[in-house]
Amino acid sequence: MKKKKVLSILLAAVMATAMMAGCGGKEEDTSTGEKKETENKTVSIMGWYDEDDMEGVINAVNEQLDGAYTLEYTYVALSDYNNVLGTQLASGEGPDIVLDGAEFPARVKAGNVEEITDKDYVKEFSEAGLSLASKDGKVYGIPSYGWFSGMWYNKDILSECNVEVPKTFDEFVAACEKIQAAGHQAMGFGLADADTAQASLMGYLENSFYHNNSDNSDGIDFDAKFAAGEATLDGNINDCVKKWYTLIEKKIITPEMLGISNQDALNTFKAGDVAFFNGGPWQYTEIKEAGVNFGLMPQLSESGENVFTGGGPAASLGINVNAANKEGAEKTLEAFASVEVQQAFIDANPGSPSYRKGVETELPDEYAEIAECVEAGNIAVNWDRWSVNMPSQTMINESIAQIQGMVSGDLTPDDYVKAMDAKADSIRYE
């Protein structure tokens, strides 16, 4: 699902209205002086997904509720979302249904969401899908769908420049240099407001540090040690960050991109002006409708074998322990767990995996280059593994800021690694 391109206006007023709409009250009967209980029919949820893209999902939920309750959705810009949601939940308020991504484990840790372990619908989801919503054998939420990222590529530009779809990171760098020499822009990054460079770096680390790396005998278990404070990134990932930094050194990623929004960068790809663009299935329909001849490839490893691409549960949904409409929230989460609503998530994100039994998924033809990786289940990202002992969104935000510093020329790869360690030291739960 694409992220909305403009900030919400008068956010506080909007949320106040939404919360009031979700609360039951008492209504004075002026003719008799008696108070009558007003039935609470509205269930509230908020998220960072564009309202247009959520429309099909919300409609599917309301069809399942069949008039008993009505789900109302409020948009909050991604840059504001965690602060807004966290503040509301900490004050005992917030939407009836809690929707969150990398920070859902933090909501569980804080006691913000109800335990749902014994609900029948929980059994319909895979263990991987429930990973961010589980703690100590108990379940507190359900997944929406699975996300993965990769690189969109313009087939016509590659053909014009006589470039094959790269299979390794070195081939990718060489392809970018050849494309730039031919007068085209190789990569489009909107670093003013997006995490695309962060996704690129983490994709490289997944392939070249956590996997396919004889020097890291722990593999992904390294992150359990890092999360616990038993290992540091410094002295371990430095060489990999320096290798990825090649994209900056060779001016494939440039300081000018710091002033470009992600949507503007996507627009240049849609216009056929850029060869590669980091993104994923949430952008498929928008690119398809632009008429570009395109494909989607995974993040790349050094060898081109055992390739992984970044991803995991996109967002989890749970019941706010302080929901204004607890009964409605319970019915709504059950609706979210239905095949029909889970299918609506997939329909809005073509090619994305589902963690729900009975949901049909199919990779579009444009996903041929990434199909083997996705079908093998080689989809992972380190911040999900960090979330067991730290609010991973804080680490994501720190990584984005430090990458911006590398792109501007103010920071080195070693500075990046040290800053990430320092941030982790300051936010671990225990």
From TrEMBL:
Presence of the UniProt keyword Kinase in the record: no
Keywords: Signal
PROSITE patterns cross-referenced by the UniProt entry: PROKAR_LIPOPROTEIN
Region forming the signal peptide: 1-21
Gene3D superfamilies assigned to the protein according to its UniProt record, in alphabetical order: Periplasmic binding protein-like II
Pfam families: SBP_bac_8 (PF13416)
Annotated protein name in UniProt: Extracellular solute-binding protein
Organism: Hungatella hathewayi
